[in-house]
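Next comes one such specimen:
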Amino acid sequence: MLIEKLTQPTEELFLAMQRLIPQLGPHKVPPTREELAALLASEGCTLLAAREPDGHGPIVGTLCLNVYRVPTGIRSIVEDVVVDESARRKGIGEALMLRALSLAREAGASGLSLTSRPDREAANRLYQSMGFDLRKTNAYHYKLK
């Protein structure tokens, strides 16, 4: 398996996102070509992709890592981790997360945050097995759109 940083909004990536993002949940809408290009051009954002079985195989998973500065230091957060249903239970999610941890550490982040819906049981087990702590906090969201 190969984990790579994506920098170009290729047709292959666009089609992979159209297939993968809906697997996050029925309310998740894949990016348009323009949104994908803006994401890849965004400072502090790294889009990782997993290819199986090697660098020549199709994209079977993606992860978005954002590293940013706040008054109290450098933070990082992972969003939209998804592995294709046909490729799950092969260590792909863990490999994506390990690469994200490494990149966040290299950027000087003090930690790596993420959220995961409780019904994504396998994902939650993975994060806990990797040493992520379930935070005791109130997560708030204000819908703008």
Q: What stands out?
A: The helical segments are 11-20, 33-41, 92-106, 121-129. The two ends are 37 Å apart (CA to CA). The chain has a mean pLDDT of 95. The longest strand covers residues 59-70.
